[in-house]
Amino acid sequence: MNESKEKANNVHTDQSLTLKAHSKLLSLLSFAPLYTK
Fold first, then answer.
1. Full-model pTM
2. d(Cα 36, Cα 32) in Å, to the nearest integer?
3. Angle CA(22)–CA(20)–CA(23) in degrees, nearest 5?
């Protein structure tokens, strides 16, 4: 029981990490035009 719960937690943290990385990439992309000008 506990093992599967831990696995679910790991998956959840992985997803939030990828979401954070994606938002960082998106913000970088949205700021890029300012820097290239």
1. 0.51
2. 6
3. 40
**CA 18, CA 25: separation in Å to the nearest integer?**
10
In order of 21, 35, 36, the CA distances from 32 in angstroms are 16, 5, 6
∠3-8-20 over CA atoms, to 5°?
A: 140
User: Average of pLDDT values for 25-29?
Assistant: 87
Q: Is the dihedral of CA 22, 26, 29, 35 positive or negative?
A: negative
Residue entry with tokens 């949205």: 30
